[in-house]
Amino acid sequence: MTTPNRPARDWLAALPRDRMLGEFSLWSADLCNMERDIARTAPHVDLYHIDVADGRFAPSFLFFPDQVARIRAITDRPLHVHLMVEGDIVLSQIRQFAEAGADLISIHPENGPVVKEALALIRGLGVAAGLVLRLETPVEILRPWLGQVDFVTLLGTAIGVKGQGLSDDACPRLLAVRALLREAGREDAVRLAADGGIRDNTVPRLRAAGAETVVLGSLAFGDPDLAARMEWLHNLPAPDLAA
After folding, report:
1. Residues near 124 by Cβ (< 8 Å), separated by ≥ 6?
2. Contact yes or no for 7/77 (Cβ under 8 A)
3. CA distances, 149 to each of 18, 34, 106, 116, 142 (Å)
4. Which residues are catalytically annotated?
5. If you write DSSP's letter for every residue of 205-234 in order, what string do you get?
6. By C-alpha distance, which of 155, 209, 146 is closest to 180?
7. Are residues 206 and 171 in contact, defined by beta-carbon separation less than 8 angstroms?
8. How far apart are CA 79 and CA 63, in angstroms?
9. Beta 128-133 vs 151-155: how paired, if at all?
10. How far apart are CA 167 and CA 155, in angstroms?
11. Do β-strands 128-133 and 104-107 pair in parallel, antiparallel, or remain unpaired?
């Protein structure tokens, strides 16, 4: 596969620190008019979020390497691939999606013993590494891996199901992970993201709890005035997270 479009090599370091980021989930794009929706949203997005699901780890079948390669060919915006797959296929999936053009690949610590090898493989392929945590998994599981990742994403709803409300546990979990990052000396090195239950009434709460980016679905692709939506997002006040 060829990947003619790529973001700048320093894309991750160049992401703004003085405002909230907008990560747009392509699961909420018009899947029959993907190129149109990417062209329409490209001026407003910081990175695109691509969910991959195997129907086992999450109750869906989503995005394949060939699709990601085609998306890569039409945008130079960073692509964040979230692998919601079982541990027995995660290594092969990492290789395929790195080849397809992913800039950031996130896996689940719930994949178990393969996580160490998986994170090393992502790094070895020259791709940024992330972890995504299911809502029911204690945040302490992240502790051993914080020195090896660039992104941590917390799910605020059950995995792989659209249209759910934000869990009451979502904001306390963000605060707890922010404390872990501070303790590990990684607060300025790892971006903290929230995914699931993203609504206009929940984003300010997630921001106040320390989220630096949110995964926007219909809130981005369904908004008739995306420029105004992103201005609102960018102007949300930074959280007061003094220890």
Report:
1. none
2. yes
3. 21, 30, 9, 11, 10
4. 51, 195
5. HHHHTT-SEEEESHHHHT-S-HHHHHHHHH
6. 146
7. yes
8. 13
9. parallel
10. 9
11. parallel
User: Which of 142, 131, 136 has the alpha carbon at shortest distance from 108?
Assistant: 131
Q: Which amino acid is at 150?
A: D
CA distance 223 to 233: 13
What does the pLDDT profile of the chain (243 residues) look like in tens digits?
445 689 999 999 999 999 999 999 999 999 999 999 999 999 999 999 999 999 999 998 999 999 999 999 999 999 999 999 999 999 999 999 999 999 999 999 999 999 999 999 999 999 999 999 999 999 999 999 999 999 999 999 999 888 789 999 999 999 999 999 999 999 999 999 999 999 999 999 999 999 999 999 999 999 999 999 999 999 999 988 765
Reduced to 3 states (helix: H, G, I; strand: E, B; else coil), residue 152 is strand
Cα separation, 51 vs 99, in Å, equals: 16
Reduced to 3 states, what is the DSSP secondary structure of residue 198?
Answer: coil
